[in-house]
Amino acid sequence: MRIHRTGPRVAASALILAPAIALGTPAQAENVTGCLGEEGATVEEARITEEVPQEILARSGFASAVDGFTRDLCAASGVDDAGAIVERHADALWRKAVDRVQGTGSVEGDLSAGDDRPLYWARLGMTSALHRWEPGFELEEADRAALVADMDRRSRGQNGAGLPEAAGESEVSHIVVTGFDPFRLDNDIRQANPSGAAALALDGAVIETADGVAVVRTMLFPVRWRDFTDGMVEEALLPHYTGDRPADAVITVSQGRDGRFDLEAHNGAWRGGSDDNESVGTPEVAPIPDGIPTVTPQPQWSDSSLDHPSIVEETHGAPFPVIDNTEVTEIPVGGTEPVVRPDGPTPGSEARSGGGGNYLSNEIAYRNTLLRDATGRDIPAGHVHTPILHFGPGDGITDAEFEQNRAAIVGQVEDIVAAAVRS
User: Do 315 and 415 meet the contact criterion of CB atoms below 8 Å apart?
Assistant: First the structure.
C-alpha cells in the first residue's frame, strides 16, 4: 500500500491548532471543578468516574485537557465566551488525539500512542462538565444543549471544514472515512474500538493512485441512537455529497465480527433497538430527519457501491480474511417471520438485519448509502466491519496482545481503504 502523510497536516485549514491548554498551578487544579454541580451527567458520562477511565486519562495525558477546559469554562463571562471556549478546546482535543495517534505531536504518559480511548473519555469529561456547569449568569437550557452539541461534533472531526487539497497535486481525490466510539462498556469498561483508532490514524493520509492522489478526511460517531435520530450522520456527511468539493468516496467503518473483516453489501432500514452507550434502544425503522435529501418512499434496503471483489483480491493474505458479505435477514413479501437470505434481500421484503446486523453500524451504512442515492452521486460508498479487538489475559487496561491486535486491524483498515480508492 502506498499511503503517506504530507508533513504534520495536509492542508492549512487542518493545520490550525487551538492555543495550548494551560495546566495551571496546583492550587488552581484543586479548584478546577468549583463551578460544577453533582447532577446532570448522562448515563454515558457518569462512567468516567470509574477507575479504568481515570487511569486511561491519567496515563495518556488527556486528564489535563479535561481540567484545562473545566477551568476555562468556570471563568466564562457569558454564553458567547463559553461558545468560544468550547470551540477552542474541542478543536484542540481532536487535533491532540490525531497527532498523538500519528506520532506528529508529543505523546504524554505511558499509554501507547495508537489508543483511541483517551479521546473518548476526555470528550465525555468535557461534555459532563457542560451538563453539570453552574455559571454565575443565567444559562438557558437551549444554550447549554448547543454548547454540548458543538463540543461533541468538533471533538469528533465533524466541524464542517472542507476536504483539503494536497499541495502541488493537480489531480486530488477526496475520501471520507468514519469510525465509532467504544461501546458495550457495561460488559467491559476497558473497551476500545479499532474503527476509531483507524480513523485517527488515517486523518490527513495521502494515498497514491494511478490517476493522482487521494486525501483522506476522517471523523467519529457516537454509539447513541438519539444522535442518529436527530440527523448527526446526515449533518456531517451531506456537505461531502453536495459541497463545492464533494468527496469521491465515503467509507464507514465499525467493529464487527470475530476474526474477520466484512464488506457489507446490503444495509437495512431496521434498527434492532439493542442498548446503546446510554442504555436505551427501541426497535423501529430508522427515522430520516426532515430537511435533507432522501429517497421516497423510504427504501427498506440500500447497497454498497464499493468494488468488493477488487478489495478482497487486493487485501488477500492480510492478517485477517476479508469477506464480501451478502447475507441479510428479511421478512419476505407475504411473510410474518424473519428469514435469513445468504445472497441479499428479495424484492419487496422488509429489512430486519443488513449484512452488518441491525445496530448503529448497519444504520450508519444505510444512512450513508441512502445519501449517496438521494444526491445522485455515483461514487464508492459502503461499510467495512473490522474484527473484534480482544484483550489478552489479565485485567489491565492494555497488554501486548491488545496492542498487537489493534495495530494489525488498523493497518488492514488502511489497506482496505487504499484498495477501495484505487479500485
Answer: yes
Q: Give φ, ψ of 116 to 5 degrees.
A: -85, -15
C-alpha cell at 11: 492542508
* Cα-based angle 260, 268, 289 (whole degrees, multiple of 5): 125
Neighbour count for residue 404 (Cβ, 10 Å): 12
Position 165 scores a pLDDT of 53
Mind giving me the DSSP string for 365-386?
A: HHHHHHHHHHHT--S-EEEEEE
Secondary structure (DSSP) of 123-186: HHHHHHHHHHB--SS---HHHHHHHHHHHHHHTTT-S-PPPPPPTT-SSEEEEEEEEE----TT
Record the cell numbers describing residue 363, joined without a space.
444504520
Assigned C-alpha cell, 203: 486523518
- Furthest-apart CA pair in the chain: how many Å? 70
Angle between helices 51-60 and 63-74 (to 10 degrees): 90
Give the residue from 304, 302, 196 showing the smallest Cα distance to 254: 196
Three-state DSSP state, 200 = helix
Q: At which residue does the C-alpha cell 489479565 appear?
A: 394
The CB density around residue 46, as the number of other CB atoms within 10 Å, is 12
Cα–Cα distance for residue pair 185/395, rounded to 1 Å: 14
Q: Of 245, 164, 173, 172, whose CA–CA distance to 203 is shortest? A: 164
What is the reported pTM?
0.91
H or E element that contains 4: strand 3-5
Q: What is the reported pLDDT for 159?
A: 86
Mark the ranges of the chain whose per-residue pLDDT is less than 50.
1, 6-30, 162, 166-169
Res 145: pLDDT = 98
Output the DSSP codes for 215-276: EEEEEEE-S-HHHHHTTHHHHHHTHHHHSSS--SEEEEEEE-STT-EEEE-EEESEE-----
Q: CA distances (Å), 227 to each of 117, 185, 233, 274, 289, in order?
A: 20, 18, 8, 15, 11
For 273-321, write each residue's pLDDT tens digit: 999 999 999 999 999 999 999 999 999 999 999 999 999 999 988 899 9
